Amino acid sequence: MNCYYCGAYLDSMDTCPNCEADVKIWKKIASISNKLYNDGLERAQVRDLSGAVEYLKMSLRYNKMNTNARNLLGLVYFEMGESVKALSEWVISKSLQGEDNPATAYLADIQKSSARLDNLNQTIKKFNQSLTYCKDGNTDLALIQLKKVLALNPKLVKGHQLLALLYMKEERYDLALRALKNAEKIDVGDANTMRYKKECHEHLKANGKVKTKEKDTVSYQSGNDLIIRPAKFTDNTAVLTVVNLLVGAAIGIAVVCFLIVPGIRKNANTNAASQLVKANETIATREQSIKSLEDEISSLQQTVADAQTETSSAGEKNTSYEALLNAYVAYAAKENVKAGESLANVNRDLLSENAQQIYDNMLTDVKSAMLEADMNEALDLYEKNNYSEAITKFESIVQTDEGYQEGKAAYYLAFAYNYQKDESNALKWFQIAKNHTNSSSVRNTCKEMIDDMQSRGITVPDASGSTGTQAGGTPDGSAADNTTADNSDNNTDNE
To answer: Nearest to residue 458, comparing CAs of 485, 426, 412, 480?
Structure first.
């Protein structure tokens, strides 16, 4: 069993050995989920598929990451003929556990056979069409369509049950009972199947109570022959003969009118209905197939996206709290730079209101210490004539506070750019340093440098990054030299 928070393997203790989180409740929940999974497995093994579905759903309510329960639920659905539900469970299982997951093999086994996929799609379409016929009262068309459905997918429990209901509506309880027995072979614990069977047995029992009729014949043995004669002998007269002929003719006409003609009409109607079904299928097949697949894909994509978002959000939230805790430990130890580095890894939006207040308070105190540390590092690089890296450090400081230490950062940044032959940026930061400094010597140095550069046509770079004339000026010469910069530095520090 792994920790819900950090994913580390859990031992027998009630705390995680890695993140030290309390996992007592999590272990109990996971244990309940596994118990329900085992109960569902036992019912599936004895073909109580309906009971297995209920237990497996309860297992997933306790622990949605229980891939064994989800995979078994998909197998049970598939055995019941519910292919769409089975595929949905396997897709979700694969998204939650990408490696070492049997669901991957299940999906690949179905997808590698285009004929099998087409079979599943046809089953869904025809079953939905039969439901439509039932709602419209077209029982004959519904029966024809359902038989096609069960020919494609004999394990569809709902198909057998619907077929039984149609037979029961027509009071053909023997055929209904046969359909229900087929459904019971697949799922022995389905409540609907048992209820329908009980009703069929009651009707068949009632219809079986037939009154015995008086015998119209008498039979006796004569040697090896069995003689059967009427119980009462009547001598037919000529009148009765004529009457019998007339009655026979009437019966013949009645048979033609009431049996043969309706049979011909019924056959014609059945053929017409079959042609109508085929025509409706041809018209509706493409639209229903496209719409059904689009809805299914959209639903599965949304389910996967929701699961991935939830998992990603939980991991990012844990990371932010760990970073906040590390920052607080460093802050309490007066290691402000380390605390600032940890705060940079915190996503404030994922914190609670109290945690956000702690974050804001630490950030305010740590920010100045980090700027001071960056300033000392930048000055050290500057003194070592490492102007390129010094510029990077000074830039990060002035982006946070342009007038940091009364323009000292801007002042040194200007000289660093000047030593790098970038007089346009040097001019920009000399002007900014002049506006922020309170030191007269620094202000005079900045003014001299600005006047010298502007006299040579140097301009401040515009927003697009283009610059004015690069004159290649340095602090050497009339404006300033290295000694002047160093003296100015000392004046800045003294003042």
So the answer is: 426
